[in-house]
Structures are given as structure tokens and as C-alpha cells.
């Protein structure tokens, strides 16, 4: 029996058990290994079955624990819709809207759901500071000199070691350090594209990626993206003849929170390698998973050096440090040359601090706490939204990262709602920011990596109320 | 009498006095103010006359002192030639040569004339370290958060204050901080050009600028550049209809060391503003002058916001910090947006350290020492080259910065000479690196910001010997 059907069969068996009440809401599922033995199938088949169930919001994973029958199964709120493929002429992006949202980010008295970073209360600032002082003592020429363009050797070594958490076999030689993940994407893009080329991306997509690609004189195709399983491979196949590169956030992407199943990752890597289309993979959320293990990036299945794997610590440790990296595969030499031309080298200090943090187990320790905090925040947010928002609100079901994507009643224009919410000192990211087309106007992205308290809940209540008012 | 003729007349009077021996080699010239009074002309006219004399190597300036009848007047070595305008199809740049030279830069046992940075012995490393520790204590969230894309406010404020050293009237609001001057040029270029546009630059030109412009899909016109007075305005006028932007290193450019006279700067600013062609000005060497005062940048004469003035502390304080800036004039908003898309924000720590260093007079103090060291090194180098190199060697006469440009016998190919010199553990930058055309093959750039000692003199002697051997 072909594997595809096998995993669907197992998924259906479990789904039946949930429907019938054999498995109850909140109950823990048997472990992957147990199910594997019961049905005599491979671990991957069980994992795929679980992903299928997750994508239907039937089950959900909890950090360091396992899979549970989902509470949201009985939620009134559906998943957001999958977008349609649009190959029309690209329209003007709402740069003014982006600027407007950015301008409120520094307002300290706001409840700020619009940010794309983790609240500072969740960052190990004291430990990082100790690291700075320690590193400064030992740094060659105190970091005043140029380092090789490829980047600090200690950081590269530790990223390579860290790649073992997802079965990566990178060496220090495979990695180029950058000024954050966005900067890594930038180098990757200018390495594999020429102005006038076309790049396929997810939709909705983080506006920083969208704007950067546009600013390089590249054309964009936004691929339909499932809120749980990521880009549609069928649609990717359709546009293959038109595209010169892909740029995907494969694990807990921003804003949908989708995570491509392993089988999809394999297929995409194989497909793009066969067609000689480079895959730029932004894996900056991969370490913030709610499930039992870190999802592998596409890079784990890259046999031809066709994947440029990008990452950073901006979402987990210190956004302001601007420490990121790219493992550009077969494009490495060209990437190093691009970096050399762009900025010569990166300052060594923060690279050494992060390397030190990783090397002594502090990163792993910090991530364990951070994942739990974020997972709990996610539950708080979802519960509050279910309570306070209109019943026809659709909501994403991220298994990692820290953003929620909401699809509201089609009558709501979140750009207008934004102006109203700002008067109540509430900020969020309107959906229109996340596309080049005129859509997602009834959507919004909420960051749940802020400290959960009564004020936050009150703000969600207010937001829900404002939406209801708009509907009347 | 028109001013142009007036300054030439005064220059000729002084030249006559030098030729006749009335003014002797090494003798100090009357001050600018004295000459101004004697001939009843403006200060600018005297300054222009002095520049004219400097351009003929008849006089030279000394730090904190004034102008002297040049020793090199009686030097056997001539100035390098002015390049010819070439409008032919651009040729392949010698990227392999650049990579080869870069690969030897980390060889610690080399006498390294190829570097573009000041030796660490000339940097105030201990004071900078103190600054880091001090700043770290007071930094908001210890620098883990994002700052506004425009850059750290304290640094911007201090750069604005510092601009008063060249009659600038910048405010903190005019400045965008960057990751070094090269990165500033990058943002300036992507702000004012589109792929396919044409940019006029000096020739020879720093290979980093050349390669960066090329990598952005831009075409390049290399303008003939006088080793003392910089680009030829006549040739600039000729190519005006073909170009979309200019990118000039106006003060002590790399590698020629030329410094545009004030009158030329005014004319260029006026000309480009009239034709609506943005001027990207790289002024990263302006603070390292050997004369009595800092030469003004073109930005000082910019009335329309058409000049994007770039700078950094990479040549004076700490290359590895990657702290630079651009004052983009009327292009500011677009530049900020480009930076936001490229890397979001810059880490605040080193920006605060540099701001603190400037604010408390430590920068000015350091520069005074640095200028004297470099000026003395320049004299040592020129003397040694005159002594050990063939008589038909031509040499630049920089009044600031820290590189010398040598034009050797046309039979010498410095790319071949480089391979031989490397065997003697001597590095330099072959001329071919500094152009997109097949020229300067008999030229080389030497960095004199290395600690002068017997080993360095011995290396120059060896280099001279190797050249003489090649000529036989």
C-alpha cells in the first residue's frame, strides 16, 4: 500500500476515535512510537498522520510532552482560508500603511500586537550582558579590526554544531554570518537572482520579505499557502517555468504560522533542485516549536547544495544584536563576495557573545523556558479571541513562533480598524501589509510574545468590541 | 580681473620665487592671511593658488603648521599620469586578483602594504574598550532591542555636531547610520539608482566601490582623475547626458590621494544639482588631513539636498566596529526605507561608544596624533621609494589619507610582480584592481598606515629591487 494512503488511513482511525469520544478533548494521544508499533508502520508515517490531524486542528502538540486532542477542535473559530493564486500584474504595496504601523512601535503606553519580536521580559538580558563583558576581555584587538567576510569562526562553529538539532551536517565552513536573518535573505537574494527575475513566496508573507524582493527589482509570485501545511506544491509546480528562485519560511512562518510537513519539504527540495531553481529558506522560527521536537528545515534534505538556509537569534535572544547567518550551499563563494562588497565584514563582539551563549548550553536552556512561555501565551490569546471576537472570526493554529493570523468578516477593513484601535492605544498589523495584491483587507496579525496580563486581555476585549461595532 | 586668472597669477609669482631660490626648499611660506593682505585678494583666491602650487608638487602642507616649499619639488619622481576617458564597453574586472590579494591579508608575517586600514598600533583600543564597558551599563535593554532604522540618536547628534569642523550645518535628523562607509555608499546607490543606470566615478577608484556598483547591475564611467585635484570637470560635463549619478571620494581619495579644490567642489555640486544628477560623496578620509584644516566636502556647498554625504570611523578609529553614516539630503526618507528593508536596524552598542568618544573630545585628541603619525609615515615612505625604486617611478603626493599610488615603468606588470613579492612576504594592491578597464597594469597602491620600522624599510627596498630585476 503506498505510504500516502497509509498515513491518511491512520489519521482517519484517530479522527474516528476523537469523533466517537474514545479520545477525549485534552486527552493525551499515545506516543508516536506506540502508534508505530500498533500499526506496524514507519515513524514518518505516524508523524504525517499527526500533521494531517494537526492541520485539521483535531490534535495539538505541547512542549516536552506530546500530542493531545485539541481544545480548539470544539472551538467555534475556523482556520483562515487558503489564498488563491494570482498571476496578475503586481499592484502597489501599501508602504504608507507599513510606515504608519512602524511609527507607533515606539509608543510605550500601547498594547502592541504589531511587533515582530519577543518582549524583553522574555529575553536573558543579564546573562547576555555577562557574555559581552567576558568576550570583550578576550577579543583580538578588542574587536577593532576586520574579521574575514565569511564571519566570526566561533559563531560559525556553534551554528554548525547547533544544526545537529535538526539532523543538519553543516560545518563551520558552510556558514556565512550576517546582520540578522533579513540581511541573510538579502545576501541570498542578490546571490541567486538578477533584477527582472521572478521569486515565488508564501502568501500572506512577512512584509519585510515582500518589500525587500520588490526593492531588488524582482517580480513576485505569491503562492497559495495553507495555514497549517504551508505552500501549495501543486501551485508551485504550475509556476515553475516562470520563477528563478523561491523564498519560503518553512517552519512557523510569519504571519500564518504554518509549518511544512516533512514530506512536503522533501518534495519541494527535490522539485526545485531538479529544475535548478534555488530555494532560499528562512528558518528563523524553527527553534521556537511547541511540539516534541524541532521541525527539520528543507536544508536537512538538500543533497545538491541548492538550499540557502537562513537563520538568526533575533526571534529568540537579542533582536538588537543583529546576528544572523546563511548556509548558502553551492552558492557560498558568491554570497561571501556579495557580503564583502556590501559591508566588508561584521563586528565580532556580538557574534562571539552568541557563540559563547550557544557553546555553554545557555541557548538551549533559554529556549526551553521561552517555548513554554510562548505556548501558554498562545493558549491565552486564542481563548480570549474566542471569547471576545465575533463568532465568524477565523484563526490560525501555529505550532510554533509567536504570531496569530486572524481572518475577520469580509466587511471589516483592518486598515480602517487600525486607525480606530490606535485611539484606544492598541496596535496590530493589518493584513494588507502582507501581500502585493489587494487582499487580506479583513485580516490581521497579532504578536503573542508579549507579557500576558489583564491589560493585554482587556485590549483583546476592546479589539473584539471594535470589530463588532464595525460590523453593525 | 576674473578670479580664475587672479589665483593663477599669484601662483606664478610664488612659483617664480621658488625657482629663483627666493623661497628655499623646506622654507615656510607666508600665511594665507599675509598673502591675502599683500595682494589684496580673497582668502579663497590664495587657497586656490596654493592648491595650484600643491598640484605641481611645488609646495606642501604640514599638520598644524602651514605650507612649505616642497622637498619633492627637487624629487626625481614625477606625479602619476592622468588617466584617459574610456567610454568603450566595460570589461571584466579582475575579481580573481582581488580575491588573491584578500587571501593574503591575514598572513601575520607579511609586510602588508595592501591593506586599506590603519595599523592597530595607531588605534586608541584601551580607550574604546573603556567606552564599551561604560556604554553597556547605561544602554536601554542592554542593546537587545531594535532601534529606529534611522540609527542611534546619540551618534547622529554627534556626527551633526562634528560637521561643524567643515562648516556643515547638519542636524541629527539629517543623518542615517550604517554599517561602515561602504554600507553607506550601498544604501546611497540603491536609493538614487535603478539597475541599468550609469554612475560616474573616479579612475583609478577603490575596488570596493567599483565592484559594488557593478554588483547592483549599474554601468560605470571612469572619469579621468588628476592625482592632486581629482576628477576632470571637463570630462564630467561631456558625460552628463549619459549618467544617472556620481560617486566621488572628494577628499584624499583612494588610491590616488587627490583632494578636489574647493572651487571644483562648488562647480561640481552646482553642475550636478542643475542637471538633477545625485552626487554620492564618500568622505571617509576627510578627517585625516596633513594641512592646516579639514577640507570641506561637497556637502558643504549643497543647497538643494542633492548630495548624499557618506562617512565612517573605519579609517580613523575602529574598522571592525562597522560604524558609518550617510546624510542623504532630499533622499533621506527613501534611504531609511532601504535600510529598514535591508537589515531593520543597527546594533546600538558601538554607535553609542563612538558617540561617547566624539562627545568627550577623545576623537579630536586621537585624530591630532593620528594625523602626525600618518604624515611622518608618508614622508618616510616617499623617501624610501625615491631611494630604492627606479628613477622613472611616478608617485602621488597625498595631503591626507594613508595610501600612495605608484606608476612604474610601462614594462612592469604589477599583477605578476605581486606573485613574486608574495614569496618575499610582501603584499601590495596591484593597479589593475582599481579599474574596470585593462589599465593601471604598471601601477600599485601602498598603504603607509603601518608602523614604520627597519623591516618596513627593508621591504620597500626589496620591492624596489624586484621591480628593477623585472626591468632587466
UniProtKB/TrEMBL annotation, chains A, B:
In the C-terminal section; belongs to the class-I pyridoxal-phosphate-dependent aminotransferase family. Gene3D superfamilies: Aspartate Aminotransferase, domain 1, Type I PLP-dependent aspartate aminotransferase-like (Major domain), Winged helix-like DNA-binding domain superfamily/Winged helix DNA-binding domain. Residues 4-72 form the HTH gntR-type domain. This is GntR family transcriptional regulator. The keyword Cell inner membrane does not apply. Keywords: DNA-binding, Pyridoxal phosphate, Transcription, Transcription regulation. InterPro entries: Aminotransferase_I/II_large, HTH_trans_reg/aminotransferase, PyrdxlP-dep_Trfase, PyrdxlP-dep_Trfase_major, PyrdxlP-dep_Trfase_small, Tscrpt_reg_HTH_GntR, WH-like_DNA-bd_sf, WH_DNA-bd_sf. It comes from the Bacteria. CDD domains: AAT_like (cd00609), WHTH_GntR (cd07377). SMART domains: HTH_GNTR.
